[in-house]
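FW: tagging you since you asked about this chain on Friday. Here's the raw sequence from the shared folder, copied in full. Didn't touch anything.
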Amino acid sequence: MEIFIQSIDPGAWNAIVKGPFIPTKEVNGELVPKEWDGMKDDEKRKVQDGQKAKNILTSGLSSDEFFRTARCKSAKDI
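HL: got it, structure written out here
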């Protein structure tokens, strides 16, 4: 699976290994997640890597396995 996902997109494999990338900004001295419209292009790409990884992983699952992982928030959780 590692080789397959890395051949499609190394960033997707990175999202599986390290977990999701969540861009943040400081608001009133507190870090909060950025909205999509407020992200830089490289931040959007890293967020999309995680979504791509989830898509690749769930595409290879049976329906029973898919429903067991449907609540997972990240590719790393799957």
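FW: The chain has a mean pLDDT of 94.
HL: agreed, and The two ends are 13 Å apart (CA to CA).
FW: great, closing this out.
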